[in-house]
Amino acid sequence: DSHCNNLLQNITGSGGRLILFYNYTVNLSNLILSELILCNADNSTLDNITIQGSDNLKNNMLCIQRTENTTVSWINSSYNRIGILLLYSDNNTLVNLTSNYNNISGIYLYYSDNNTLVNLTSNYNNISGIHLYSSNHNNLKDITVGSNEIGISVWSSSYYNTINSVLATANGWGINIED
To answer: CB within 8 A of 44, min separation 6: which ones?
Structure first.
């Protein structure tokens, strides 16, 4: 967790909006940001936040890294590099997420386990709507993925995930599972 030991303040990002970085527990709501990074910020709450980078760069995201037991709700992270990234983050609850038109993926879990994601909309992303990489025991429910190269992608030793109630339309591949 040592790389979370940084202090970043007063940073203006793409589109003239703030980039916020927290490495401690926070409760944030009703914000429009260029980017938001939680790094070792366990037990945080995020509600009603829009992540919107530059109109032409698509270089931002909501990044939740090495963070556990956090509740994230009503997030819209669209027109970015990745909409929402969970990186080495476990036991989080994410509800009512919208992540459209991102350069890579709408929602990306990387080495992140035991998360619950409910009511996800992830459309028109260049590669995947939702991507799980070496992520296990996650519960995804009430998902809409459309017009992505891959609707839902489960890769590299991702086991025991539960994916329920999916509407996958006009994707190159609906669901792709590779070991």
So the answer is: 22, 25, 26, 27, 28, 38, 67, 70, 71
